[in-house]
Amino acid sequence: MVGPYRKLFNRPGVKGFVIAGFFGRMPMSMLGIGIVLLVEALTDSYGMAGAVAATVSVAFAIAGPLTGRLVDRYGQARIAVPLVLTHGVALTSLMICGAFGAPAWTLFVTGALAGGSALSLGSLVRARWSHLLGGSDDLHIAFSFESIADEVIFVAGPALVTALATMVSPYAGLVVALVSTVIGTIAFAMQRGTEPPIVTGGERSGSPITIPGVALLSCVFLAVGSVFGSVDLITVAFAEEHGAKAAAGLLLSVIASGSLLSGLWYGARRWKSSLRSRFVTTLGIFALGVSPFALIDHVGVMAPFMFLAGIAVSPTLITGYSLIERLVPARLLTEGMAWLSTAIGFGVALGSWAAGRLTDLYGASNAYIFPLGCALLAVVVGIGGSAWLRTPAPLVSSSSHE
């Protein structure tokens, strides 16, 4: 099953940007839960923790497409380095404000700065793959590999940050995230040989979000992101209610493990069905996987069901990014992919805020109704607008694409 992935790394420079990109985006699975754990430890309120985490996510979501447009216009290296340094300063400031008992509003201000300067490094990595492999069968495999890498991150990240925050210090997980993103992003930016060239010519005033298919995918991923954000927070509270708070990271890692394995299998296959039909199918499986959570009242029982829920995550993300690559012109590709990250970011923010409120009011088990509702909404929107996801034929014929 790993054979198709091996050939991706024969091209010069690929290993360098893949490894740097992996470590640079490792904190994407650590930042939200790290902030939740820190703020909850400081305030003893999941509502407050969810609100600060939501602020970070909203700021990231707003800035994402703007950052993507700057990258498309000026190049990856010129934008990535100053942004990641700004992000490092802002995240450090947030931790300092917490350590010295600064007013609550300072956590929101520094959190907004940290989120606004966070880079959607996954979009930049996928843009490099598209530059190197555009029109080739191998692009499907590359996007699948990146989804697998994301899931490895989501397996390791929550468990690591939870262990550090609960066993070492509430700040320890965010410190590790900070070091990883700064060093990884700078190393990624230094890989100039694989950086996509700036595409000149063509109309630049438009935005990919005006393309109906991109707008539809963004709406779907808004709902999907709400599931991610709410499940993260509710699961921390669920584990704490059952006297096993340190197990929260492991439960979230179980979801990512299911997604990792399904992504590995999905990317190695040559698909005859269209991207559009695969996308709506995986959305349905995703909603089905989330549905039992509200009925479970034991940490050990929850683990296998979270694994099953994770199975649809990677295929959904892979097909979403593959559809964007087909729907968006090359000169706007980074911004187009950033819109998916933005939609997920807004969803995570909404999910974190709503889950914090619902958990404080009704308890963790009852709060799991919210992510189920969001998953069902994603299915309805995806099926209802699937006609907009018809894509042009690829430059090179492939049985794995529509």
From TrEMBL:
Organism encoding this protein: Streptosporangium saharense
GO MF, one example: transmembrane transporter activity
Membrane-traversing stretches: 16-39, 45-67, 79-101, 171-190, 211-234, 246-267, 279-296, 302-324, 336-356, 368-389
InterPro entries in the record: MFS, MFS_trans_sf
UniProt cross-references to SUPFAM superfamilies, sorted A to Z: MFS general substrate transporter (SSF103473)
Protein name: MFS family permease
Keyword annotations from UniProtKB, A to Z: Membrane, Transmembrane, Transmembrane helix
Organism phylogeny: Bacteria, Bacillati, Actinomycetota, Actinomycetes, Streptosporangiales
